[in-house]
Amino acid sequence: MEQVKDTLRAAVRIGYDGRVHKIFRGPQAEERFANEVKVLRHLEKAGCTFVPRLLEADPAQLKIVTTNCGNRVDHLDGERMSEIYAELEPFGVRHDDAEMRNVTYRQSDGRFCLIDFEFATILPGFEQTDDTPAPQ
Predict the structure, then answer these.
(1) How many whole angstroms separate alpha carbon 14 and alpha carbon 31?
(2) What fold is seen in the domain 2-122?
(3) What residue spans of 1-136 are helical by DSSP H?
(4) CA of 96: how far to CAs of 84, 118, 123, 136, in Å?
(5) For the segment 123-134, what is each residue's pLDDT rounded down to a tens digit?
């Protein structure tokens, strides 16, 4: 596995199969894990195609496995970055960490994507009450 990020808050690795493995740690790790799982499930149900799809969630290890949304972006003008983050709102989500480090580029379809939803908010009126079981 290739290590992509190793900080006090998370370790992220990409497996040889392309899947992204993220382990939460540090302050409020449980809450950040639960929020990212909740938001990714919400976005999948809403049909959002420019975010990772949650494949596995392990609350005992505070680990998620997602699909890969491409490579990190090094340069993007502020206006375009704001537009990309604004695209989440019709799906009922505000990212709340709108930084360049959370934008990726998926070469297969030429699409900018967004990652890292541990601080995201599901907007009022979009909350889902359906408690669908977690993907395994």
Answers:
(1) 23
(2) Transferase(Phosphotransferase); domain 1 (1.10.510)
(3) 29-45, 78-86
(4) 13, 9, 11, 27
(5) 999 976 555 444
